[in-house]
Amino acid sequence: MNREIIYIGDPMCSWCWGFSPVLKTINEQFGAHAPLRVVVGGLRPGDTQPMTGATGSYIRRHWESVHEATGQPFCFDLFERDDIVLNTEPACRAVVTMRTLRPAATLPYFERLHRAFYVENLDLTDAGHLSRLAEPFGLSPKDFITAFESAELRTETVQDFQLSQRLGVRGFPTIILRHGDHMSLLTAGYQPFEALRPILEQWSHRQPEPSSQVN
Known about the structure:
This protein has helices at residues 14-30, 53-70, 89-101, 106-118, 127-134, 141-148, 151-166, 193-205, and strands spanning 3-9, 36-40, 174-179, 182-188. It is α+β, with helices and mostly antiparallel strands. It has one domain: Glutaredoxin (3-Layer(aba) Sandwich), CATH 3.40.30. The chain is globular, with a radius of gyration of 17 Å. The two termini are 22 Å apart.
């Protein structure tokens, strides 16, 4: 019975950025035994509200909480601007584009998008930024944009969002462990690796259980 670690997150989710080192360690220590599958959940797809005023203050408090809890770096200069909208669909579609064209680079590119937004304050609704960030992973901007703008990848991105909903995911990051037809929840929200390791070790050696759904 095959095993799979299903990660549901969003490249513009601050807690996912905080979880990024944990996810990398999980992949390094358990990826050979149970491949990591990245699913984009769609934190705020289609959002049109600029990150200013009360909205900006609310989001900034989240960033500060993630920094305090995880130590991940943040640059807060972005909140001095009035042109940044937290529409996460383009960044999610960029991850799907990388997953389609360079599957092995999906997780590193996901992390690169995190850093570009939270540390470098790049606008990830800009396809130009997304394509340039893909270049170190072997994709020319032209090839990236062609795939990124295709109807097929727009549809596949929406299908990821729908899968997240069907799995009952209500927040990010979420990790679901699949063993054959059986699924179990590892974490819904940030957890340090040391809290997750014993569960992963036990799961990786456990015999399959009857099929069940994650609620």
